[in-house]
Amino acid sequence: MISHYWMLRCMVYVLMISVFVSCSKQSDKAPGGILPKDKMIAVLFDIHVAESSVNSRGLTNLELNKLVAVKYEDIMKRHGTTYAIFKESFDYYLHHPEQFELIYQEIVNQLTAMEGKAKARLPEKTKDGVDTLQRN
């Protein structure tokens, strides 16, 4: 009878530890092979800027796809990673919504700052959206 009681008690402890571990907060640190947050932010920022630049050119779908592929390759090289590692990292963060949200909040902040700097360089009349071209 003592061994049965001891076995039951051990099972309860194992169950409690399992519940505690599974309910504990996920680590903010990405596992090996996954881009760290700061690098993921930098890569995604560059991707968004590149896609915005490409989409504003009025290219055909084929031209657009070729240019995007070249831009992605350049971005991956610049950040010392590959598309496969980026994709795996993106999927990882996508399944960790709290971290994903923090990453995208930082990207939005950086894009907003970039937009503010670009607007600051524009002449005053164009900031308001007023047409600056002289029409006859």
Can you give a write-up of this model?
The structure is a single chain. This protein has 136 residues and is mainly alpha-helical. The protein has six helices and no strands. The protein has a domain at 32-120. Helices cover 74% and strands 0% of the residues. It is globular, with a radius of gyration of 25 Å. The model is unreliable at 1-8 and 10-22 (pLDDT under 50).
Give the key terms.
about 140 residues, mainly alpha, 6 helices, about 75% helix, disordered N terminus
Gist of the model:
The chain has 136 residues and is mainly α.
Question: What is the topological layout?
Answer:
Elements: H1 2-23, H2 37-55, H3 61-78, H4 83-94, H5 97-121, H6 124-127
For the terminal residues, how far apart are their CA atoms? 103 Å
Rg value: 25 Å
* pLDDT averaged residue by residue: 79
Largest sheet entry: none
Note the total helix count.
6
Binned, the helix content reads over 70%
According to DSSP, the number of beta strands is: 0
Structural class estimated from helices and strands: mainly alpha
What portion of the residues fall into strands of 2 or more residues?
A: under 5%
Assembly classification:
single chain
Low-confidence segments, given as residue ranges, are 1-8, 10-22
**Large-scale geometry:** globular
Order of helices and strands: HHHHHH
